[in-house]
Amino acid sequence: MSAAGGEEATDATGTAGSASAGYAPHPFIGGRTAVLRALAAWRMRWPGAPRVIVLTGSPGSGRSRLITGFLMLCDPEYRKRLPLDDLDPATVPPDLPAPAVPNPQGLTAAQLLWTLADHYELSAGRTDDIFTELGAREEPVTIVVPDVESAGPVRAADEPARLVRDVLEPLAATESVYLLADVPRELATELAGSLPRGQVQIIDLDEPEWADPEGLVLHAETALLAATESPERPYTTDPEARRTLAEAIARRANGNRLTVQLAVQSLLMQPEGFDPSDESQLPADVGEALDLHARRLGADPQTLRLILAPLAFAEGEGLPVQLLGTLASAIAGRDMSQDIADGMMLAAPFIQPVEAGDGADEADAADGDGSGESGTSSGAGGRTLLRLIHRGIADEIRAGLPDTRDAQTKIAMALLEAVPEQNWSKADPYIRDHLAAHTLEAGLLPQLLTDPGLFAHADPVSLRTAVEAVPLEQLGAPARTYLRIAPLLTRSQAPVDMRAALLETAFVEDGLAPWAEALHGLGFTLPWRTLWSLPLAGAGSVTVGSLPQQDVSAPSEQGGNAPSEQDANASAERGVNASTEQGANIPPEQGANDVTAEGVQGEAPGASGGVRPVAAILVPEGTPGSRSLPRPEGDAGASGGWALLLHDLLRPGYVDADPALVLRPTEDERAAAPFGISRGADYLRVWARADQEVVAALISDTPFTGADLSPDGVLLVSTARGVTARQITAAAPAAAAPTVPAQAAGAHDADASHGLEGDHS
């Protein structure tokens, strides 16, 4: 037993001891009595048992099967189907509620942690709060995390290490958490080392004290006995011959269950010429199992490895079958199509076909073009995927290649060439979602991250994970914009057109207008065109309005200077006087939104020429180019006042004009407008008044502080980041009597608004 400074909780007696006592082996595991005793003691919180168990071993050692068999005993319903009375009582945990078993396959560390939060119905708003809430529960919680090695949507991003560091270590440090985790050997010591002596135990299935030679023989014997479709041989029909061969296979495999499985499959597939008495015909490891199988079928072992090589590098749920030949040829540097056509029977024992039809694929279909709406797209689209039957085979094949980075480079280039007309909307979903993962390991990802079409079409969870694995200094400006907006894309699970719309605005916000414009030419149905964006920290309410042209000075273009402080102060004085003359009397308790009601006073007359649409933005006093609002009487010396900043509504450029001259749309004009808006803290909807259909939905990673919609459909929005104007691009529906959607029913705008809040109907 290998422990991190702890005492052994149980004696490591083997399966033979259990069998000699007359107990039957576990029907699914076929042994592992010593480990099952240790796990049962952990589950019942036996005195002296560790609070945390770290299960590890080499690939193919049987960790996943062991965890699955143990969980059968822990599930109140499933255990009713097991012959519990026939099993060693020390291996059977008590009948308790089932533990939480979050499956890490394909998930990021954060996703797995929030899966746990959902399971326990926690109210945590931050990841750190999850551990705090778990620690504060009255009753201890039991958590089993299987197959940590399968974590993450991108293999090269090393998500298992992040999962151990960011999730398992804090869980293990939480006194009320009883944790069992299946962890790769290179991470097991790190996890166990984070805990005090006596609280943790490492169970390494390759260590002699946890070895199960009798169980391995039983595994081989059962596989030979199940060979009902193979030609009858003495070692499949005669119990003594079968036992003898099973012992030889297990002995030769050196404790590795995957090697045993591959050895039995191969000899049953091609029994001719096999001599059961010649152990040299039996594999000692996975690599030998591959090579002996190829030779037994009269093939070159290297050909078999090249056929399987694309699957060893495959991401997600598997590789589309039609890409196998393309990628195998790329890796081999020659045409492999005939080898694959002739060699599928050769490769069959190592390949598992997957008919893709899970929820992610259904979401892909609903998205219209196969892009991942679910956030965890398998890139399948209802087709046949191929994957290797075990991760240990992939490890062996990759290890046998002279240069894995070169192989990934060849794969990446072949995938890029397979994109029709370099149009991502026509690309295979696997290529869209997983090309970034291949280029990451090849060291080519930064060069790929300049294409706005890929940013929009690729599954955001996979692409974000790959981009985050690249050092920030290696990323160009478009990639940094993507990285900034990616959390919103993944959280919202937005479909492809909405992803494109959010990216379009983000590019404008970051001064990358060519990338924003490119998205309008790539066939997306975008609900808006972003006209301009201002990085105004502290911006409050906003309103749309208009100014008579004769009252507008030449605008200051963005990128240059806002109106000078001298001009601003002079104009502000005029604005204050104008507002005061109109009877402004603002009580001190009024908030920012109320202050603005006196800054923009009038309503625009009916539609006429000679006016300039503008945006009036409430900003902290002292913002360059702004004009201070009048303060309440007796509050002249107070700090932290508010001011108004005017900006052209339709194009970049500040406007130097008196805010008191801004005319807001009349109530009749708003009611006659084709669109209305409704919003919450972090979402906003634009809906057509004629049919109440939502034509644009906006989400934000920061709360909205203001919003307004012009009669011509320009959406003005302020958040903690700044102010943005978007032209709604949906065609205006036929005019109808103005109505309010059900979700927006409530007080009339005039009752709910206090000035620069615009239309919130």
TrEMBL record:
<feature type="compositionally biased region" description="Polar residues">
    <location>
        <begin position="547"/>
        <end position="569"/>
    </location>
</feature>
<feature type="compositionally biased region" description="Gly residues">
    <location>
        <begin position="369"/>
        <end position="382"/>
    </location>
</feature>
<dbReference type="GO" id="GO:0005524">
    <property type="term" value="F:ATP binding"/>
</dbReference>
<feature type="compositionally biased region" description="Acidic residues">
    <location>
        <begin position="358"/>
        <end position="367"/>
    </location>
</feature>
<feature type="compositionally biased region" description="Basic and acidic residues">
    <location>
        <begin position="748"/>
        <end position="761"/>
    </location>
</feature>
<feature type="region of interest" description="Disordered">
    <location>
        <begin position="547"/>
        <end position="613"/>
    </location>
</feature>
<keyword id="KW-0067">ATP-binding</keyword>
<feature type="region of interest" description="Disordered">
    <location>
        <begin position="358"/>
        <end position="382"/>
    </location>
</feature>
<dbReference type="InterPro" id="IPR027417">
    <property type="entry name" value="P-loop_NTPase"/>
</dbReference>
<keyword id="KW-0547">Nucleotide-binding</keyword>
<feature type="compositionally biased region" description="Low complexity">
    <location>
        <begin position="734"/>
        <end position="747"/>
    </location>
</feature>
<protein>
    <submittedName>
        <fullName>ATP-binding protein</fullName>
    </submittedName>
</protein>
<feature type="region of interest" description="Disordered">
    <location>
        <begin position="734"/>
        <end position="761"/>
    </location>
</feature>
